[in-house]
Write a structure and sequence with these properties.
Low-confidence stretches: 1-21
Order of helices and strands: HHEEEHEEEEHEE
Helix content: 25-40%
Number of helices: 4
Radius of gyration: 16 Å
Number of domains: 2
Largest sheet: 5 strands, antiparallel
Number of strands: 9
Distance between the termini: 28 Å
Structural class: alpha+beta
Shape: globular
Mean pLDDT: 85
Length: 176
Amino acid sequence: MQPVQVPVDDAAAEEVGEERPGCSCPELDREDWHEVESDWSDIAFVKGSTNAVLGVPLGFGGIRGELERKAARAGAKVPEDPMFLLGAGRFRRPVMLEVEDAPRGAKDIVFPGGFAFSRLVPAPWGEMQKVVDQTEAIATEKYGRKPDDMWVWYLTCRECSAARNFETLIVAHYRE
C-alpha cells in the first residue's frame, strides 16, 4: 500500500492565510507531526461522543462547545489550538478535546497514556478511510501490532479545506 504524499508548497501556504480572513483553523509544522512518535504519558483530554450515520459525524460543529463546558466543569483549561480528535464508529463516534491542568479522576477527563504515531496528510472526504487504513498499516508494520485506537484531527474548515488540500492529522494511539 503506497502512502498518500502531501505536496508542500510554501508559497501556496502563505497565500492561503491571506485568502481565509477570519479562519482560525490550526496549522501544524510538518516536521513536528508527520510520521512522528509522541509521548502521551502526560496528556489529557475531555471525552464525549457525537452521532453518526454510516460513519459520517452529525452535529460535529456543536460538540466542541459541549466539550469545552465539560472541561470547565472539571476544572481543566483548553489550550490554544488543542487537538480535537474524532474516533471511529458507524452510529456513534467518540471525540476528544485536549485539555491542560486536568484533575485526575474528574468526570469525562481521560489520560490515555502510551504514545501516538501521527501522519499529516491530505484527506478529502472520499479518501478518509484510505488514509486512515494506510496510517494503521504503517503503524502496525513499525510497531509490530495494530494501534489500540485510531483518531482523526480535521485541521481545516469548509472555507480553507480546498486551499489547504484537506490537511488532516491521522493518529495511531498505542496504550502502555
